[in-house]
Amino acid sequence: MVFTAPVLNYAQLAPILIVLGGALIGVLIEAFAPRASRHSSQLFISVATLVSSFAALMRVRTQSSVDAAMGSVAFDGAGVLLQASILIIALLSVFLIADQENFTALAAAVPGSSEERESLQRDLRVTEVYPLTLFAVAGMLLFPVSTDLITLFVALEVLSLPLYLMAGLSRRRRLMSQESALKYFLLGAFSSAFFLFGAAYLYGYSGTITFAGIQASVVGGSGNDVFLLLGIAFISVGLLFKVGAVPFHAWSPDVYQGAPTAITGFMAAATKVAAFGAILRIFYVSFANAEWQWKPALVLIAIITMVFGSVVAITQRDVKRMLAYSSIAHAGFLLAGVIALNKSGLDASIFYLFAYGIATVGAFGVVTLVRDSAGEVTDLNRWSGLGKRSPLIASVFAFFLLAFAGIPLTSGFIGKFSIFSAAYESGSTWILITGVLSSAIAAFFYIRVIVLMFFKDPVEDGTSVVIPSALTTTTIAVSSVITVALGVFPAPLLNFIESSAFFIR
């Protein structure tokens, strides 16, 4: 047996390696830096790492080679666009995370213990969240460019494990936060097991773990079709869990509500981009020639997801749970791009993921500002009359809700129009009809919140809008500007995606 030395293109892997390097530096800061200087040091390292990674990614875009790690990682046009979206969303999320009011004083302390009370009195601030965020971002960057099942699984775990931890770091309502983290971890472990089962079946079917090899086996029809069907089913469970599609959505509302709001925004936006990037790649590359074996099931899941998310969101009285069910509905809309299985579907999905991710980070940024003496206020009844307390903040949140609803002159309208057009081109009429009806239902509960904020009298219960920090202001302002720009002038980005987005086979 001859050992073959691995051949790696470090220039193309630089965006991922830079983020991993920044995360390791963050770990060293936690180990050796004085506590007083950790927050500023971690924030600087995180921002510098993400900016440097984005600069390296722009250099990768100009290179002709696409195979970066012996067939395991491919930097094609679609992969680079998805990575750029993740880095931009992550940078805006780090600005939100920098508001230390969101996080517990001592993560290891038992809620209500004397240790926790002492840490609160000393005004300690947990800063481990920064390297955890960078580790998650590194996994997210690898996820949509992985071209074999082992690399995809490693990326899945690298992005998931830090999120399980960060979901339990809320400063207040500690028991709810820890419960959400445990639920996310347990259900995530089950989904990972399903993913591994699927990988094993696909290997049994094709004798290979690469996406290109699986595609060749599908085209050649040389394997056992039962293994193929089981492999597609189990792999889909693992991936659909990450995007919160029905019936794999049970974790979403509880985790969104219990996690620190900054982490919820990061998780809702960046994880969706990474997970759908992987779903698009594996279905467009490996399973494209077996569409009639998986398309009916995925159409059914997409329809149920759209309807369920939109209908159940109407009954929610907590703003974070409402946004969680909204996220579930949007997962159904995005599945329309996967089902379309054409170039228009790929382009529309990438645009939708970026537009939705930016608006999501901005919306959760606004949620962090509505507080009382006990912390954030997420009960919608207490948002009554918010437009009279703080017209600007209420108007910005209303704008993000209108973007989620797909109202014209917002990025959400362009995203939905593009993805439904792609579904229509592919002949998925039921997806189109259901998507339009679900959007109408969703518009009802978005507008209901707007009416609550502007046309109801404020309740004198101590609820107020705090003055945002400079970093939180930056996140909300940038998100608003991008959402407006993509709604009014979407053509430059749409044309750029159309000319750049492709998957290597």
Topology:
Blueprint: H1 10-32, H2 35-61, H3 77-97, H4 114-121, H5 129-142, H6 149-166, H7 174-206, H8 211-220, H9 225-243, H10 251-258, H11 261-286, H12 291-313, H13 319-340, H14 343-367, E1 370-372, E2 375-376, H15 386-389, H16 391-405, H17 411-425, H18 429-455, E3 464-465, H19 470-488, H20 491-500
Antiparallel strand pairs: 1-2, 1-3
Helix pairs in contact: 1-2, 1-5, 2-3, 3-5, 3-11, 3-14, 3-19, 5-6, 5-11, 6-7, 6-11, 7-8, 7-9, 7-10, 9-11, 10-11, 10-13, 11-13, 11-14, 12-13, 12-18, 13-14, 13-17, 13-18, 14-16, 14-17, 14-19, 14-20, 16-18, 17-18, 17-19
Gross geometry: globular
- Annotation field: number of helices: 20
Q: From the structure provided, what is the oligomeric state, counting identical versus distinct chains?
A: single chain
Q: How many β strands by DSSP?
A: 3
Beta-strand residue percentage: under 5%
Biggest sheet record: 3 strands, antiparallel
Structural class: mainly alpha
Query: What order do the strands of the largest sheet run in, or round the barrel if closed?
Result: 2-1-3
Helix content estimate? over 70%
Average of pLDDT: 87
Q: What is the terminal separation in angstroms? A: 29 Å
Which sequence of SSEs, written as H and E, runs from N to C? HHHHHHHHHHHHHHEEHHHHEHH
Spans where pLDDT lies below 50 across 5 or more residues: none
How many separate structural domains? 1
Task: Indicate the radius of gyration in whole angstroms.
Answer: 22 Å
